[in-house]
Amino acid sequence: MERLWKQALQQPLKKGYEFICGNYSIADVATYPWVAIYEFLGLTLDNYPNLKRWVEIVQQRPAVQRGMQVP
């Protein structure tokens, strides 16, 4: 999981993008649930500050909050 974070997610976010592809897109929608469970997996985002920022931004979106409530 951490290799995916480093290679696929941290790099574009390191470029200063707010979202994975620059603008909020299906890439963010599809990726967020997999990253959002990092605590459940016993992982931390402390070594991935851009990814941590991205999680905080995405989780504040009202549609994401509603979607995460769906069982």
What is the helix fraction of residues, given as a range?
Answer: 55-70%
Molecular shape: globular
Summed over residues and divided by their number, the pLDDT gives a mean of 89
Strand content: under 5%
Structural class: mainly alpha
Instruction: Summarize the helix and strand pattern as letters.
Output: HHHH
What is the strand tally?
0
Uncertain segments are none
Indicate the radius of gyration in whole angstroms.
Answer: 12 Å
| Largest pleated sheet | none
Distance between the termini: 23 Å
Number of helices: 4
Describe the secondary structure blueprint for this structure:
Blueprint: H1 2-14, H2 26-36, H3 49-59, H4 62-68
Helix pairs in contact: 1-3
Task: Describe it.
The structure is a single chain. The chain has helices at 2-14, 26-36, 49-59, 62-68. It is an all-alpha fold and 71 residues long. The N and C termini lie far apart (23 Å). The model has no long low-confidence stretch (mean pLDDT 89).
What descriptive keywords fit this protein?
71 residues, 0% strand, 4 helices, globular, 59% helix
Compose a concise summary of this entry:
With 71 residues, the protein is an all-alpha fold.
